[in-house]
Design a protein that fits this description.
Distance between the termini: 28 Å
CATH topology of the largest domain: D-amino Acid Aminotransferase, Chain A, domain 2
Number of strands: 15
Order of helices and strands: EEHEEHHHEEHEHEEEEHEEEEH
Oligomer: single chain
Radius of gyration: 19 Å
Number of domains: 2
CATH architecture of the largest domain: Alpha-Beta Barrel
Amino acid sequence: MRWVWKDGRLYPENEALVSVCDGAVLHGASLFETLRCYRGQPFLLEQHLQRLQRWLGRLHLFARARETVDLSPDTLRTAIGELLEANGLLLSDARLRITVTAGADAHRPSCFLLADGITPEQIARWEQGIRAILLPDPRAASGELPKWGSYAWHMEAQWQAQARGADEAIWFNRDGYLTEGAVSNLFVLQGNRLLTPPLDEGILAGVTRAVVLQLAEELGVECREERIPVSALQAAEAVLLTNSVREITPVIRVEDELLPQHSTIKHLQEAYRRVVHRQIQRSQ
């Protein structure tokens, strides 16, 4: 049986209910964060909560949630520990999702946590590299985006990628510039410079993206936020995708084109793992 943490306690999955009148159900009005837990320890939890709190504070839909949902790190750490223990995930890696709903006039907003195990086979595959396709970005947005619970476009892009034998979809906008992956941020290594699209291209301010920007600087790799045309993929020395669960993942193929691999990706992966190890050691 799978357990879910919701509004202060654990429930069996089929009993953790949200009202059909909740804004999350009617309008997709929820916000969420996804992060990775390493042997029971959530990685960069505070950074994820800061991003969640930032959008709760900006969006009028979540005025009640700001007042009623406790998102303090101590509360969440206790909840995460209870959830992982109940699901037998304290000794393995896990994908954790934190969701806050908008609620409704007669229904309080809810906060619920879900956790799923990550297998060694999945980790090995991500480290070796994934395949991607190119798709037009359906959002046509500008400026940093919130992590809305309405992820239908992202899920549709993932389904299209899988139907074509790939693992991820990389989006490009109407002007022909790359934005991000459906569930990841994008980096392109070009001429010994690591490039990533700026936030004003309408992308997610990824937590792992921020770590990679810092690590690149520490490793002496020039890293810039600038617009990247789709044509840059053909001349790229390497392409990598980042998210909190997959960490730093090289792209080995885009459409039918094989991409070169570069030692910079391996160095970034190793540096990221050192950051994880240090933080987990401090948390224990």
